[in-house]
Amino acid sequence: MLDDAQGLPITRRFASRTAIGAARTAWRPSLNWRLAWRNLAHDRVRLAITVVGVTFSVVLMALQLALLIGFAATSSSLIDRSQADFWIVPKGTRNVDQSADLTERRRYQALAVPGVASAEQLLVKFLPWKRPDGGVEVVVVVGVDPEHPAVSPWNFVAGSIASLKTPDGIVIDDLYAKKLGIDRIGETVEINGHRARVAGFTHGIRAFTQSPYIFAALKTAQTLADLPADRSTYVLVRADRGDDLARLKGDLRARFPDLDVKTASAFSWQTRGYWLLTTGAGVALVLAAGLGLIVGVVIVAQTLYAATVERLPEYATLRAMGADNSYLHHVILKQSTFGAAIGYALGMLITGVTLLLARNSVAALQLPWPVVFLLALVTLLMCSGGAVISIRKVLHIDPAMVFK
Length: 404
Known about the structure:
By secondary structure, the protein is of the alpha+beta class. It folds into 2 domains: 10-73 and 281-403, no CATH class; 92-257, no CATH class. The chain has helices spanning 10-17, 19-24, 29-42, 44-75, 77-81, 105-111, 177-180, 218-224, 245-255, 264-277, 280-310, 312-320, 325-357, 369-395; strands spanning 86-90, 102-103, 116-130, 136-144, 156-158, 169-173, 188-191, 194-202, 213-217, 231-232, 234-239, 259-263. α3 crosses α13 (325-357), α4 (44-75) crosses α10 (264-277) and α11 (280-310) packs parallel to α14 (369-395). The two termini are 16 Å apart. 41% of the residues are buried.
């Protein structure tokens, strides 16, 4: 450390002020905090390096987790937005975007089960969309009954659910309007060789596959998908209020032995697991989030270790004046706590600005408050882990080096 006006290194001078008291009593805990802060703040260049390292790690982890959580929520948004207690799906269905067909007879069979309050059809199909410039995009057409929608479009910025009642009317999300070549309501488009007309816009309905969701009336969707008028892909069941859901699930399974009956929660998690764990894009997100954590730990550990090694003469001075291992242990841990607090605050500030700027992009970024607090704990543990590595070096220091 730099010398002060009296010709003594600051840490040595600070330690000398406590020497008399330390000889009579144990080293006071309050001195730990003061010394830890002075060690960290005196060398401003080293402080900046430490804070930048922690900040970079926090931003990296936070953004990777925000992407992972956002895309997970996006992949199951149709399920999570439905009001259904159970989804009746064809055997082997692994996610909400891909499924075989069901006949309307299945809906009436579900309505005949005691305890079922309602059963609605839902059609979800990947279909080609022809842009005005001749290019083709793949979209996911979601067909619902406008009177009793199994899943209603949300976040309308133009139009409403009633817009689906217009002939050939569809609703798209404005985040994908440019991608689909749409500028305004009323434009005529071509989906799977059939005519449709944009009747409304939503905002923020993203798709994990980056194939935009296109909402339409069930009959319109059946026409666009070239399906008979009695076909859909799912039957969404809502139980009577207060009914025993476990019993009702068993009754539905008995009624449909050739189909799968899933709770909304179970189907939601299954869909997330499918896209995140069995596809290249999902695995990449999971690996990136894990890599962010590993890189963060390495950066913080190396930064704190380097900062500690540079101050070995000061720690040797404290050892020579009678400071025990416990005292030095606490000083280094509290030093890492200061670095964690400053780096975390700056990292979350940068993350918050990034999330704000990305709110109108097709990239799904979500960072719930529980995850924010979890990141604070992880950051503290990272810095403490880096400090532990440094402590091993300090505890083996020779106090005699201060006299060399």
